[in-house]
Amino acid sequence: MAAAPVTAAAQAADPEVFSLGEIVVTARDARGDRVGGARLEADDLRRFQKTTLDQALALAPGVNAAPTGGSRNEALVFVRGFDRFQTTLSIDGVRVFLPSDNRIDFARFLTADLAAIQISKGYVSVLDGPGALGGAINLVTVRPTGRHEAEVRLGTTLDGEGSGVGRQASARVGGAGERFYLQASGAWSRRDAFTLSEDFQPTLLEDGGARENSESRDWRINLKAGFTPRGDDEYSLSYTRQEGEKNAPYHVTDTASRRYWRWPEWNLDSLYLLTRTELRGGAELSTRLYRNRFDNALFAYDDAQQTRQTLPRAFRSYYDDTATGGNVSLGLPLVAATRLTLAAYVRRDRHVETQTTFAPALIEPDQTSEEDTWSLAGEITRSLGPDVDLIVGVARDWRDLRRAEDFSAGALVRFPLEDDAAWQGQAALVWRPAAGWRLRASASSRTRFPTLFERFSSRLGTAVPNPGLTAERALNVELGAEWAGADGATFSGAVFRSEIDDALIQTPVLLAPPFGLTQQTRNVGRGEILGLELAGSVPLGDRIALAGHWTWTDRDFVDPANPAFRPLGVPDHKVFARLDWKATDRLTVTPNVEATSDRWTVTSSSAVTPARYYRTGGVVLVGLTAAWAVTDRLDLVAGGANLLDETYTLVDGFPEEGRRLFVDLRFRL
Fold it and tell me: Any idea what DSSP says for residue 514?
């Protein structure tokens, strides 16, 4: 799978995609095609058994994932070197934002009931609102098209010895009439553990086999009702709820700073109304109104068995967050093949946290923070000729802090209310020099406001707040090309460069007593990212096709207080290749390989001072899948990942999964 850009015509060919839930993750040219970006389709997510979002995103060029992610067991994602704080995540165009720290765990988002995943890299349209410093991700759900539709999927995950370690299920039922549609869908996943490679060398803290404390449970439902009165007009009311719980494996060698943490709740829900109305003269009005809620609980224990809470390090922390907002956009045709789109975005985030400690015994009062985020944007698309289009966008974003509280030294602390604002600007030029070819050049200057955590958290007593933090900025420049041949062959490539200024980093500072020498987040970092992406597919005959992609990324980041600092988590090289062999009319076999070069990580033990940065080593993961259409209604996907049982680590002290086998059965009415 090359994950090359999909044209508007190709997109329209899949009626099950909930087009109202798609967002302008990148600008579109005058023909409606996206300027750059990538798109992952549901069939590939299933074929390679990418059951969670972090696994799925790793299929796209320029995107890297670290499944375990460290002591918090949060799956991390990097888009062209930008981390989860610098990219945005949406479901059907509705932003998922955790107002305290935005520590999104991408493994908590299941993929079984998705139609597609949109990915923007570098260039993100200003029409979609603030925050997308380096990228944007949007999960698009399924929309019913037939009068009666139903689908059930059952799956199981096995370790290298064939023992069951996980189960998955999903279902969808719905239907569409001339003017209405209804649908209910859901997904469920239970993982008892993941299994380490047989070559893993046991330690005092991990004996190998099933990884200690790696279990998780997740489920999601999506309810959708729509009204399509005429033409392209559409009005849809949706409700999504997902609930998760997870444990966190321990560092396999660190005895000095182990965290005995688990999350009994990691829950999200969203109620949202999406509309699209065609107006006179070719104008179009679109709106999104939503209310989101995030409930989270984190428990810390005294012991590895997670049975006691008596020591000072034990606690129970609860988050209760809500976000209410919406955005509206108006597209207006102007003179001379020119279209103007105006957009307004507003969101109010309310974060409430409390904590119970045991030594001393204390239940903290609720600490509440509220903040409004605004954006006004305009984007103009103009045809400079039959084969050349220019897209220019500009936006003004604001952050209005209304309340910020914390609990410190036995008292409720209210922080000064400081606001911020920033300009965003971007432009792209698209040229179609010949049939099948499309060339593009783009530049985008975007910002990202700091979270409440970055401004006000004491980080368990190791840092002091900095209410005056301002936005960090990135200038992203890209040159790209796409080609589609008459024989089905495709090619895409991009050269990109990003400059990051005023980056937010933890800096040692000497403050007046009682603080002394401590840490504080400040706008003092800067960096540069250079990269190249190549992707393509080619038919090798009537029944065989080869596809794949390669990404080279070079990151250079300067921390004035730490000359040894290295940017973490992203390999210099990433390769994915697949061979689709249609063995019979009903059976397709797909061998595949994922390979990455080494990446930087850092020691996390408090016993290692100063922290040591080192390379993890490269990884080659071999996989094989077989998709068998048993009947027109029943099909089966079976296969395996990391078939060579590679032993590897992406984050210091946290080894990844060994050989994994899977079976997925689907029945459709």
Answer: T
First to last CA, the chain: 28
Angle among Cα 537, 539, 544 to the nearest 5 degrees reads 115
The span from the CA of 490 to the CA of 431, in Å, is 17
Residue length of the chain: 669
Amino acid letter for position 247: N
Helix or strand (DSSP H, E) at 621: strand 619-629
Helix (H, G, I), strand (E, B) or coil at 552: strand
DSSP conformation letters of 25-83: SS-B-TTS-BSS-EEEEHHHHHHTT--BHHHHHTTSTTEEEESS-STT---EEEETTB-
Instruction: Please give the angle made by the CA atoms of 181, 182 and 186, to the nearest 5 degrees.
Output: 140
Nearest Cα neighbor of 53 from 166, 131, 138 is 138
Q: In this structure, what token pair is assigned to residue 425?
A: 């600007």
CA angle 661, 662, 667 (to 5 degrees): 165
H/E stretch holding 6: none
Strand runs labelled E in 404-462: 405-408, 411-414, 420-431, 437-448
Q: What is the DSSP pairing of strand 388-403 with strand 649-651?
A: unpaired
Q: What is the pLDDT of residues 548-606, one digit of tens each?
A: 999 999 999 999 888 899 999 999 999 999 999 999 999 999 999 999 999 999 998 77
Can you give the pTM of this predicted structure?
A: 0.94
pLDDT tens digits, one per residue of 314-356: 999 999 999 999 999 999 999 888 999 999 999 999 999 999 9
Distance CA 304, CA 146 (A): 52
> Given its phi and psi angles, is residue 72 left (phi above 0), alpha (psi -120 to 50 degrees) or beta?
alpha
Token pair of 113, please? 């009931």
Place of tokens 């460290």: 70
Q: What is the DSSP string of 76-91?
A: EEEETTB-TTSEEEEE
Residue in 310, 285, 409, 396 with CA at minimum distance from that of residue 346: 396
Q: What gap in Å lies between CA 347 and CA 373, rounded to an integer?
A: 5
Long-range contacts of 333-337 (CB under 8 A, 24+ apart): 333/281, 333/282, 333/283, 334/380, 336/382, 336/383, 337/30, 337/382, 337/383
Taking phi over 0 as left and psi of -120 to 50 as alpha, with beta for the rest, 528 belongs to beta
Q: What is the mean pLDDT of the chain?
A: 92
Q: Which residue in 344, 346, 348 sits closest to 376, CA to CA?
A: 344
- Strands, DSSP E only, in 485-582? 490-511, 516-539, 544-558, 573-582
For residue 418, the 8-state DSSP code is: -
Cα dihedral sign, 34-38-43-46: negative
Return the bridge partners of 555, or none.
529
The model's pLDDT over 184-195, given as tens digits with 9 standing for 90+, comes to: 999 999 999 999
Q: 40-49: string of b/e by CB count within 10 Å (b at 16+)?
A: bbbebbbbbb
- Cα separation, 94 vs 268, in Å, equals 12
Q: How far apart are CA 471 and CA 462, in angstroms?
A: 23
Phi, psi for residue 455 in degrees, rounded to 5: -85, -35
Q: Residue 301 corresponds to which tokens in the numbers above?
A: 């224990």
Stretch (H or E) spanning 284: strand 284-300
- DSSP assignment of 141-167 equals EB---SSSEEEEEEEEEEETTS-EEEE
Burial (CB < 10 A; 0-12, 13-18, 19+), residue 498, is buried
